[in-house]
Amino acid sequence: MKPDVVVLGGGAAGLLAALAAARGGRRVLALEAAKDAGRKILVSGGGRCNILPMEDAPARFVSESPNRLVRRFLDRWPLSEQRLFFEELLGGELREEPESRKLFPPSNRAKDVRDALREALAAAGGTLRTAAPVRDLVRSSDGFAVRLDGGEEIAAPRVILATGGRSVLAGGADAAGFAWAAAMGHTVRPTYPALVPLTGDAPAHHALAGVALAARVTARSSGERAASTGGFLFTHKGWSGPAVLDVSHVVERAALGGASAEVRVCFGGSPASQWDAALKGAAGARSLSSFLSRSSLPERLASLVLETARVPDVQLSYLSREARVRVVETLTAFPLPATGTEGYRTAEVTGGGIALEDVDPGSGRSRLVPGLFLAGEILDAFGPIGGFNFQWAWATGRTAGEAVARA
């Protein structure tokens, strides 16, 4: 088969792009480096696949490009239409998880999502080749030459570049798409691990490994601020949980510029006024640590809070105003001595990538290279935890696939 379009990458964006192009009547060949396609789909949501969020949140996406461009890419395939597509593809309504505002497949099995996409692609006449690492992509007189391991070369009049990022690399994948795009003249912004646990040398914190609770985490650097509310977890190396992952990019981006970021935690997410009122109104015979433990703070964490605040564990009736102020400040702005992250090994996504200004949001077409389309994580944008990055992958993948079919 001589393909009309070659899709480089068999992940979420690549599979959706290939499917859209095939359903549009194009002869499609999708190439995936790993032995199995859709690795991120398979591992998402603990094997359940958090397929989509329940609500849009374009303002929470991170990119060096203006947020209006992020919105234009997402608007090409609205969230409501994505939900209907997957409900039809999977044969049932998506499962709602109201507390986290996440959507899952009817079967609660990530493999069913990946398999449904593969089967739909085959039914539309598209071809997916796995264990087919691409080692080079170069322009030719009639489009592109796609060069695989072993010397095989495939001529492609059009190419959709959906090679993903540097996180969760499957066997054979190497994130070379960034280099190919740069060689063709695109602006590729520095990449970094995002949605990743934080690390730091803090033995007193590491001793609390396994302690989890709800919190609001805020990270600040000289040029950026991010905040998120959700699960918070102490680990043997530092801190994790959705609230931490959502702000981790501030730490990484500050480090790229040779600076550091300040990270603070508000336990329980309650404002200072609420903690202060609770302390004032608590029974005087109770100890301070007992009060904190009964206020949803694990006992070991309560001890660390008092140690950090430099306040002894006294009965509440003996708590001075000055000491109460320090406790409240610590409960609502607890410092995390974060110095880095766990890196790409545990990162959910890759930050940075191809500048959105180089790509037409209405088609995914490169503004610099005729016949080249781009989709997914290779683009400079990512969203928070909760299905938003699949939303981006599905939207940009479908846009590129449909545009190729019209070309």
Strand and helix map with partners:
Layout: E1 5-8, H1 12-23, E2 28-31, H2 39-43, E3 52-53, H3 67-75, H4 79-90, E4 95-97, E5 102-104, H5 110-123, E6 127-129, E7 134-140, E8 143-148, E9 153-156, E10 158-161, H6 177-183, E11 188-194, E12 198-199, H7 203-206, E13 212-220, E14 225-234, E15 238-240, H8 242-245, H9 248-256, E16 262-267, H10 272-281, H11 288-294, H12 299-309, H13 321-332, E17 334-336, E18 340-341, E19 349-354, E20 372-374, H14 388-406
Parallel strand pairs: 1-2, 1-10, 2-6, 10-20
Antiparallel strand pairs: 3-5, 4-5, 7-8, 8-9, 11-19, 12-15, 12-18, 13-14, 13-16, 14-15, 16-17
Helix pairs in contact: 1-5, 1-14, 10-13, 11-12, 12-13
What does this structure look like?
- With 407 residues, the protein is an alpha+beta fold.
- The protein has 2 domains: 5-193 and 349-406, FAD/NAD(P)-binding domain (3-Layer(bba) Sandwich), CATH 3.50.50; 197-342, no CATH class.
- The protein has 14 helices and 20 strands.
- It has helices spanning 12-23, 39-43, 67-75, 79-90, 110-123, 177-183, 203-206, 242-245, 248-256, 272-281, 288-294, 299-309, 321-332, 388-406, and strands at residues 5-8, 28-31, 52-53, 95-97, 102-104, 127-129, 134-140, 143-148, 153-156, 158-161, 188-194, 198-199, 212-220, 225-234, 238-240, 262-267, 334-336, 340-341, 349-354, 372-374.
- The strands form 5 sheets. It has a 7-stranded antiparallel beta sheet.
- A hairpin with a 4-residue loop joins β13 (212-220) and β14.
- The longest helix is centred in the C-terminal third of the chain and has 19 residues, at 388-406.
- The two termini are 19 Å apart.
- The model has no long low-confidence stretch (mean pLDDT 95).
